[in-house]
Write a structure and sequence with these properties.
Alpha-Beta Plaits, alpha+beta, elongated, 6 strands, 24% strand, two-stranded antiparallel sheet, 195 residues, four-stranded antiparallel beta sheet
């Protein structure tokens, strides 16, 4: 059997393939662009035009709803300083009862008044430093959360609480009673605009 050089065969096959492609480019009009497009689509992984014909449509919308606050939440408190724990807590409790009655008199519903906690601590230091044991005094404080639904009455409600003995106003925050309802209204507005 005659000896065949594999390198020579590979070179010959490469030349034949190159010649065939050249003949196609010359003889067939439009072939180069078709082959080039096919090569590009294959090399880049892009789907063919037929496969790329399916399109997805995404719609986005935005709706803004501006609504003023409907309720206010006031955090107030009373702090009492007395020589004994019993005196401090009793005095704080008495003031809280007076404040409660004053708030109800201002048409604040009892269900909108909530006592948060009672805090008691000793005061062991005075202007001259550490106090003697018999000089120690005790702080008792109560905190109250009030929901005020009539925003025009905020001033009168707080004045009544202070007059009844409350001596701390920590904050007044404004909010909506049902934020979820406003969110649903906003979503409905977006959908109606898209339709």
């Amino acid at each position: 059997m005659p000896y065949t050089n594999p390198i020579r065969m590979a070179v010959d096959l490469g030349m034949i393939l190159a010649f065939t492609l050249t003949a196609l480019f010359v003889l067939l009009p439009g072939t180069p662009s078709v082959l080039a497009d096919a090569a590009f689509l294959t090399s880049t992984g892009i789907d063919s035009p037929a496969a790329a014909g399916a399109h997805a449509v995404t719609a986005a919308g935005k709706e803004t709803v501006s609504i003023g606050p409907h309720v206010a939440t006031a955090t107030i408190g009373v702090e009492i300083l007395s020589p004994t724990v019993k005196e401090a807590t009793s005095a704080a409790q008495a003031v809280m009862e007076d404040v409660w009655a004053a708030l109800v008199a201002q048409n604040v519903d009892a269900s909108d008044i909530r006592i948060s906690h009672l805090n008691i601590f000793a005061e062991n230091f005075g202007p001259d430093g550490l106090l003697n044991e018999n000089q120690t005094r005790y702080h008792a404080s109560n905190t109250l959360f009030i929901t005020i639904r009539d925003l025009d009455s905020i001033d009168a409600v707080l004045d009544a609480a202070i007059s009844a003995g409350a001596n701390n106003i920590y904050s007044v925050d404004f909010s909506l009673p049902d934020p979820a309802a406003v969110e649903s209204e906003t979503h409905a507005g977006v959908v109606s605009r898209q339709n």
